[in-house]
From TrEMBL:
Record lineage: Bacteria, Bacillati, Actinomycetota, Actinomycetes, Micrococcales
Domain Solute-binding protein family 3/N-terminal span(s) in chain numbering: 37-257
Name recorded for this polypeptide: Amino acid ABC transporter substrate-binding protein
Main location: other
Protein family: Belongs to the bacterial solute-binding protein 3 family.
UniProt keyword terms in alphabetical order: Signal
SMART domains: PBPb, PBPe
Keyword Signal listed: yes
Amino acid sequence: MKRFKTIAAVSTTLLLAGTLAACGGSADESSDGLKDTYVVATDTSFVPFEFKEDGEYVGFDIDIVNEIADRAGFEIDLETTNFDGIIPGLQTGTFDIAIAGITITDERAEVVDFTSPYYKSGLRIGVPVDDTSITSVDDLEGLTIATRLGSTSADYIENNIDGATPNTYEQLDQAYLSVEGGGSDAVLYDAPNVEYYIQTTGGDSLKIVGELLEAQDYGLAVSQGNEELLTAMNEALADMIEDGTYAEIYQDWFGSEPEWLDQLAESQVG
């Protein structure tokens, strides 16, 4: 698959969750209240944010969370799950942190905490290259639209497109294949993933139509009650943006600096 970055292996510390639980107390906490290791959940089907290649978990999100962990002074135990299992896993304490292109919403913020935004996004529509009937979101009324299970895109389809049926999938590649195979009329999902898929894989079968929908911010989600962790992560993220490290990581994966970098810097808490 073509992309801008030459991937190096990403190092994560893989520890058994049971061992973490057994340590407990001050033995696995530093003087600033942080544990030595946190369980980080991700979903590896959100290219180029997180995916698996040659046995390694790689992507923009993986680089971001590793840099934050290095700066905050903790190790990560990376766990993978389907996207719709991430928020419940944070609620039950199965995971401490999650990064998977998670849109910050009021509903989600009631059950988990979010860092400051680390990415500004929106929704894009993809349709078959030979389709001339769909040129905007208004043309999606009454159609079947492929998207990801548990996503804000699925909510958008149900709440904003009259008569449309969301055709939801656990894995994103299934959503694209559904449109390419005629099982869905269009795909609607987060802009960077739709754009990247068409640029690298689906350019002969899909095209983007319409305007960017629903401006969104991505944040790292943290299980509630971890104020020291949230503060440390926000400080690390703000420092990354200020010293240029964030822009370097972004350029590695997307080929240019984000045009909204100044807006992102202004939104930081840390």
